[in-house]
Amino acid sequence: MTLTTFTPAEAEAITGVSTASQRDWRRRGFLASGDGHARFDAFDLARMLVIRLLSDRGIGPTQTAQAPSLAFGDIASICAVGALSNAFSWVDAWEGDLDEIPTSMTIPEDAEAESFVLEIISSNRSENIATVFHKQSVPQWRAKKRYLIKQLWRERSIPLVTPGSMFIWWANGEHKFANSLESEMAQMFSSDPRTCGPIVVLDYNSLASMLIERSGRALCHVEIASDR
Hints:
Elements: E1 2-3, H1 8-15, H2 19-27, H3 42-55, H4 61-64, E2 68-70, E3 73-74, H5 75-87, E4 94-96, H6 117-122, H7 141-155, E5 166-169, E6 175-178, H8 181-186, E7 200-203, H9 204-215, E8 220-222
Parallel strand pairs: 4-8
Antiparallel strand pairs: 1-8, 2-3, 5-6, 5-7
Helix pairs in contact: 1-9, 3-5, 5-9
């Protein structure tokens, strides 16, 4: 698997983060800094998009890109992974030898015991999102995308289960990963300080749609090694 990389100018067009801000965020540790000319993959773009969207709403990078939220990452990282869990469920996000992935590779031995990110996220997918992109015909795609995401996540040491299907930043500054804003608010009183003001919600489905549409090409290339 080879992740597609994007130039700073392309990253700006996709995420809305200017090249100047990219350099500043890299210098301050909000984005990964590498040697030579900057190139960004899907994980970088998703993280960048999350930081920008929250920053535009007064929630700065220091609050979302450095302060740990869970044991395995900060808010920006977790939201980015949640978005990509959705993005990589679409054929549009992949290119290469998708038809050549052997069936035996798509069904892991621990399939019954293991929870896949895609199963959790896809259950929350809005029906109308399916009309946004042309879904190519790939035999046994549901099983193949499970396998591909699992392998990619393992390569990057990312937990297979992402908390919630959205991120909520309440009016009083509290925040939470949740599956439904409606169910969360149904448990509150009208005087709850969390709802006394603007509430910011990042929906992973929406973030995924933005990334795929704006990138204009596949996010990862798959190549099956030949035995010959």
